Amino acid sequence: MPESTQQHAVAVPIAADRAERQQRRLRWAQGVLLLFHVTGFLGLAFSGSEEFFLRFMPLTLLLTLGLLLSFQPRRTAAFWSFCAVIALMGFFVEVVGVRTGLLFGQYEYGASLGIKWLDVPLIIGVNWVIVTYSAGVLATYLPVPGFVRAIAAALLMVGLDICIEPVAVRYDFWNWQYDVIPLLNFKGWFVVSLIFQVYFNRVEFTKRNALAPFVYLIQLLFFFGLSMLL
Predict the structure, then answer these.
(1) For 144, phi and psi rounded to 5 degrees?
(2) In Å, what is the CA distance from 111 to each residue of 51, 57, 76, 156, 173?
(3) What is the Cα 227 distance to its own chain's centre?
(4) CA–CA gap between residue 68 and residue 51 (Å, rounded)
């Protein structure tokens, strides 16, 4: 047998084994996220002990981010810089929003999202990374120009925020002046999300992640389901 044929014969089962291991990792990660979100959903919706389950919200966000990033191929310096920039920009956008009311309207954060700095929970930067990254990856499947993909990803982010807002108010994530969610909030979210998505498109790193569609979907279903029960 020629040497090239032998090498090909060896490479095929190795590649198949690698793909199988990746699928097992993916199923495991999906199972863990499903367990956390279903437990949180049932606890918040039906347990009568909401405060106990709200304590785990920051942990769930950190776990989600960790698993999501573990499926990023080739985690280069450019990729890590993207995550850091989005986390910092997301956090300070919220600081400006809370302090001025110009970006999203008049609101303030409650106690449910954990430790605050400058009146904004530190974990909020993590949330911006999760939502920006997962929506951006989803939009890459669209066969359209880059700016159109950025608009589509921004709309995905706004759609998720629409589901989050009623739940956030109910469980003291944040509160709006006069208990009214202003239209400015969704306009501001779209503008900020679009800027983040344009940046996502410009940074050079592999924009594929097997777990990203599941992360976006499970968050959407989690908040949509809770909002339907309010």
Answers:
(1) -135, 165
(2) 10, 11, 35, 27, 7
(3) 18
(4) 27
Torsion over CA: 224, 230, 90, 53 (sign): negative
Confidence check: pLDDT of 9 > 60? no
SS3 121: strand
- Distance from C-alpha of 60 to C-alpha of 158, rounded to nearest angstrom: 21
Which amino acid, residue 55? R
- Find where tokens 């989803």 sit: 138
3-state secondary structure of 74: coil
3-class secondary-structure state, position 115: coil
Lowest mean pLDDT among 12-21, 102-111, 119-128: 12-21
User: What is the distance between the alpha carbons of residues 4 and 70, in angstroms, rounded to a whole number?
Assistant: 34
Cβ–Cβ under 8 Å, residues 225 and 98? no
Residues 6+ apart with CB under 8 A from 96: 102, 103
Give the span between the Cα atoms of 39 and 45, in whole angstroms. 10
